[in-house]
Amino acid sequence: MNKVIAVKPLITMGIKFSTFISATICALVSLPAMSQQLTVVDANTAPMANMVVYLTPITPIPADAQLPAKPPVEVHQENKQFSPYITVIQKGYQLKFVNDDDITHHIYSASGPKRFSFKLRKDSTQQDMVFDQAGHISMGCNIHDWMSGHVLVVDTPFYGVTDAKGNIHFNALPDNQYQLMVWHPQMQTEDNQYSQIITTPLNQPLTIQIMASMDDIPNQQSLDDFDFLDGY
Prior knowledge:
By secondary structure, the protein is mainly beta. 6% of the residues lie in helices and 40% in strands.
């Protein structure tokens, strides 16, 4: 004879089962989108660090989509170098230049979507600037001619720079088709970039292999260690 088992309502910490399930569903719905991982490697499958990766939506993103937060972006002059060497920022956002050295720098860019020239005195002086056009800006210093740095202005909120393992993660990335761009000023390709189309969500981490050669990054150090005139 089959034994009949009486089924009692499931209570979880004083909450009825139906209420518990409803709360769980609501919690799952409110979770942020899964992080999408991309990895950039070279022709020998070695990870490529400090590569700019940005995603431009093929179709418009809904106005109510959750977009990544935009932390302040800064370029420092430190030990007579630009730090970081490569900076990426979204069009229309503010970039802050900060002089951490105890000497004057004269920062300039003579090409690209925004040309500028300004002095940054010692003692952590700052200069704020908004870039309203997308494009590549190459920077130098009129006083220390070995200094070089790059700013890439992109027309998308989905961007970043690969870490030491060649990885980059995009959080809260809406499902869409994207034009994926990998950029580096030393990449030996047209416009220093590589492009392909991807569709999200990704079923697994995506590896992008860059077959192009890379030029050496210029040496960020003077042959003669000197400080320019304080009165400059």
